[in-house]
Amino acid sequence: xxAVALLGLHANDHDVRQFEMPGVNLFSGNELDPTDQADxxxxxxxxxxxxxxxxxxxxxxxxxxxxxxxxxxDFAQSIGxxxxxxxxxxxxxxxxxxxxxxxxxxxxxxxxxxxSEILRPADAVPWQEDSLETLHFVPDGPRKDLPQMGxxxxxxxxxxxxxxEREIARTTLYCCIAGTGxxxxxxxxxxxxxxxxxxxxxxxxxxxxxxxSFRPPRITISVETGGSWLTRMNEHGFLIAAGNxxxxxxGMRLTQHARxxxxxxDVCFVRRLSKMRLLRLFRVVYGGxxxxxxxxxxxxxxxxRIATDPVxxxxxxxxxxxxxxxxxxxxxxxxxxIVP
Length: 340
Known about the structure:
Oligomer: single chain
Number of domains: 3
CATH topology of the largest domain: Tumour Suppressor Smad4
């Protein structure tokens, strides 16, 4: 078996050695070779490292083990891997032939051209719902196992391929939670902190620093229902988050009830409220007890569009992605993970 170890910023070959097993050719690096089809991948890092490799791993459908070594390891915890020892035990079972893998969904983010697209008809379904395997043309070139097509059909398929590549280029995958508003502003500030501070209360410190000058934007949320886009919310709010998984930011269970295999995003919208009330919300969010507060709207959606006034940054898995307006969705069974 050939396996690749993808190293985060603070991992090295020494961390990989204990995962070496008889009969396994384990090689390490910082990127996934686009021409290689490994039998398994191990990610030594946190949510940011996982996020960076999602595109390649989803495309190749490589069984993936996450070894939690980052400043935030919420994705690993969400799939039951709470320590390096747990990851090592899962890896042993996988190498022994148990094949304890599970297919999970990933969230998708697509920037929109302008706010007019928020109310655009839903009949323009994005390519993200299709599988690459259904296309005659994929990023590595035309498939060789299909019969020869006529000129007009080939031209049509080529246009389809071009559209597909454009969608790939403008679609970002995420594993935990994506959102904008106060949380994105706090995330921007935490990126400037030392790693040790981010692991020991850095988010709370950044929240206090940000809160004094933050002004809630007007947030418009549209949800696709029955082939049409309906405006669900249009009011000032502190944040909007869409979770593929239940937690982020060192255990903040903002989308407490999110499941990674149901084809839906759990959406949490926090209305404008006093800053003292907001601080209380952040105290209880680690246990998911914010759900039910009168200032919190919580619902599920397969696709939603978000616009803000003024324009705000969108973060996912703790990483900056783009600015509003955006469309968020779900790619079903996009990632194969090795689980305990």
